[in-house]
Structure formats: C-alpha cells, structure tokens
Amino acid sequence: MTSNERWLIVGLGNPGPWFAGTRHNVGFSVVGHLAERAGARFRMRGPRCRLAEIGVADRSVLLAKPLWTINQSGPPVAGLMRSHAVPATRLLVVQDDLDFPFGVVRLKRAGGPGGHNGVRSVSDAVGTHDYLRLRFGVGRPVKGQKIGRFVLGRFTTTEAEQFPDLLERCVTAVDNLIEHGLDKAQTALHTR
C-alpha cells in the first residue's frame, strides 16, 4: 500500500447500541461492512473515533466511526485528516439522505449539506465542502411523522431484507471510486 495515497472514509452515525441499525447510522453500517469484508477490526483511537485500516487497489484506507453524536462529527474528522495527512480530495463521507428514496445510492463531490447536520459539521470543521460523499437514500417520513423520529427509527421489514445487498452495492462503489476515480465510479453506480 502506498501511504501517500491514503484515503479516509468516514461513516456518519451515532455511537452506542441504541442507535445501531437506525436509518441515521447507515454510514456506520457501510464502513463496518467495508471492514468486515477485509477482515479488519475497529479499534479505539483516542476519545474521538474508532478506526480500522484496509487496503483497496494498493492504497491505504482508514475507516472511521466518530464517537461524538452525528451532529458533531466534524471535529473528529478534521483531527483525523490532520494527523494522517489526508487531503479533502481523498475524504469520503458516507451519510443517510432523506432526498432519495430508500436504497438509492449516489456518489458526488462537493455541495451543501442539504439539511444534514452531520455533513454541515464536517464541512465547517474541515473548512470546505469540496470532499466526496456517498449518499444512501432512506426516503422521507410519512406525513405527520417528525424527521428526527424517522431517521432514528429502524428500517421496515422489507427495507431490512434489501439492506445487505445495498451494503454490497456501496462497497463496490467505494472500490470503484478509489481504484478508477469519481467519474467511472459514478457511471457504474448511477447507470445500474
């Protein structure tokens, strides 16, 4: 692995067992699946995050789960970027997204937070919006249901059955991004 090509992939989520499996923790699920597939284990790295390291296409990839609440994810991410010399061009943030129906997965570079406070925190802390994002659609709540309750809720039975295949799709997208670049990864992901 070439250390000068190191990537940082951050899954957004809330720490603790109560939040596991919720829509808002899709980011944790994706980076967890990346680690599991590679046989890597997350370890503590100070009080701010859990880290695992894997290799993708001969590049070193740090996987991170910030241990602050999702809305305060930025400072741990900025700290990791500094301590591991990862530029914003090789930062990928994995997030849940209310703007897409359940299961739609999109890769993009830059852009505003779109109402996602975790993304806003990351952008504020790293001082730019110009990083990569993997957006996992979780859909919208039914009329009258509060957004907070919805994103902190669990998937429906049907969604939970589809989730493992969608995790594989996310992992493939990450592999393609790191190995072939954004344009080719987007084409492969978005034309499926």
From TrEMBL:
Its main location: cytoplasm. SUPFAM superfamilies: Peptidyl-tRNA hydrolase-like. Keywords: Cytoplasm, Hydrolase, RNA-binding, tRNA-binding. The record marks N14 as: Discriminates between blocked and unblocked aminoacyl-tRNA. The keyword tRNA-binding applies. Pfam families: Pept_tRNA_hydro. It is found in: Cytoplasm. PROSITE patterns: PEPT_TRNA_HYDROL_2. TRNA binds at F19, N71, N117. One of its GO terms (molecular function) is hydrolase activity. The keyword RNA-binding applies. It catalyses: an N-acyl-L-alpha-aminoacyl-tRNA + H2O = an N-acyl-L-amino acid + a tRNA + H(+). Belongs to the PTH family. PANTHER family: PEPTIDYL-TRNA HYDROLASE (PTHR17224:SF1). NCBIfam families: pth. Monomer. This is Peptidyl-tRNA hydrolase.
